[in-house]
Amino acid sequence: MADQSIIRITKEIGDIQKSSDLSLAVAFKDRDVRNVKALIIGPHETPYEFGFFEFAVKFNKEYPRKSPAVTGTTTNGGRCRFNPNIYANGKETRTWRGERGEEWSAAQGLESILLSIQSLMSSNPYENEPGFEDANEPSDKKNQKDYVAKVGLTPIRHETLRISIIQKLEEFLGITGNGVVVPSAVERAEYGLDTDDFDVDDASVPWEPFKDLYKRRFLWYYDSYLETIRKAKEEVKDGQVFARMPFEGSSNSMEGKFNYTELERRLRQIKATLDDEANRWALEGATPKFKDATVGINLARQFEQIKESFKRSDVPHNIELENGNAFVWHLTYFGRPMTNLDGGLFRIKLNFSPRFPEEQPRVKFETRVFHHRIAADGTPCYFPNPNRREDVKQHIEAIIEALEEEAPPYDPRTLVQPEAHKLFWGSPDDRKMYNRRLRRSVQQSMEDM
């Protein structure tokens, strides 16, 4: 039974890792598949939108006959209750198919557990609290408004930004409370920032399997975060106290005050620090330490192979290295004929980390383009084959596919340019306006070269 349990858990983890679902991620350390870290990205048009919520999933030896234990870990050290069903101590209460009272079944699995939890992250979490499902009294309506103000105007939205996004990114980037960036001991050792040699104890380094994913998705959703803050500032004032709900207790609540001005400042610093990080990769790649390392040699080899592939297939696009640095590529994309991109000429920069492919490349369109899959700063929303993350050609093909796809399926998790997204998925007149603005940016791309 134990072997069958391990086989099933391993398969379920693999299925999620290979899935095209952009809102779920799972990982386990070494071979310990019974202890899984899971990440759920908050759904669009909810107070949890594009937040990062982590859970610890512990499978018992009798799984799948018995359900695993699930604990929320995005709680600000046990001080924040994000949902009526997700307590400050990490305990979560859920149903397996959204039907109250339904018991666990061996037919369920890891993905259904995570989707069930994600379903609790609704536009009105107030209704998730048992006894409040059909609350229609005037006091309930006010509480719902206040709670969704905790959420949309919002304490939940405010704390999603502050705790699940900003705090985690500041931690990963070494941004201190006073705004100073201090690299971790691991980074100092890797980057050679200290003059004295020292060893880093791997056991003392926190295991953060989603660190790079946080960073890349932050760049995707940065404009949406700023748009949320802009709207929230119109509804609440800095210093306004969060309202307490009837089901919240002193040790199981969401306490605090709104301060969107400060959140915006911190978001902008994170963005600047991430941009600096990509620039630092370029500097590191030019040094002998990294240039002659396995990653540098591999990137140089892939560059030559892709360049030759472009020549053989008569592809009009071109790639070059920046000053011979294999960690910085420039792709010149020529717009496909008979499309809205026809006649366009776009320059795309790919920065590679010395830890590639564990850290995926940072890609940016240096040529401005109005496109629903390209953020205002040029960051494209693309997804290469998850099983071939080390293949740079897969990245280039995925970038081009995202740019050229004319009839993609609707997926709000690809919302990286709010204005373009709204027009692209809006009315027929909106789509016409989108096409006009895209064509205008394509024409401008030729003039800017």
From TrEMBL:
Residue limits of the UBC core domain? 4-160, 294-447
Q: Which domain of life is it from?
A: Eukaryota
UniProt-listed InterPro entries: Ub_conjugating_enzyme, UBC, UBQ-conjugating_enzyme/RWD
Name the Pfam families for this protein. Answer: UQ_con
Which keywords does the record carry? Ubl conjugation pathway
Name the SUPFAM superfamilies on file: UBC-like (SSF54495)
The cross-references to PANTHER family, in alphabetical order and at most eight, read: UBIQUITIN-CONJUGATING ENZYME E2
The protein's name in its UniProt record: Putative ubiquitin-conjugating enzyme protein
The scientific name of the source species is Eutypa lata (strain UCR-EL1) (Grapevine dieback disease fungus)
